[in-house]
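Show me any protein, keeping tokens residue-aligned.
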Amino acid sequence: MTRIIAGTAGGRRIATPPGSGTRPTSDRVRESLFARLQFLEAIEDATVLDLYAGSGALGLEAASRGASRVVLVERDRRAADVCRRNARELALPQVEVRAEKVERFLEGDGGPAYDLVFLDPPYDLADHTLAAVLERLVGRLAEDAVVIVERSSRSPEPVWPVGIEVLGPRAYGETTIWYAEYLPEGEIA
């Protein structure tokens, strides 16, 4: 069972896509992740992007906790439909779902600058593919944006593009969460 932990939809269950190969972030990991994000003041009124959304758990949690706009990107149409249903049933109108490949979405025309970005790709996504996605993401980030990457604890550290500074990893068994921040060139400490 996956549920929203806190906020306006706190305690409510969300559906997960059957048989789509998605791997929802556990409640325990999401609870720790969002505690840190609240400490960083990265959620309230944020424009959020959830790439490889799966059930939408991360983006929906952010919306429940006060994000002003959330875009969920999921290429699997069945999973995208589950995301839409979850957002509707949780009464989170600020959530938009895009059923397309992450790479195609990031190549699209402009759009808002994102304050908070979640990347929770399949664990078998090649490291060089993740690096290319992170590189494309840089042009879509607001200054001081927080970037979260969830990977297998057996995976190496992601290859970060210029402008993204690592704040550090947190390991939770098989899962490692990488925290990073976007600082335009010249501002990196």
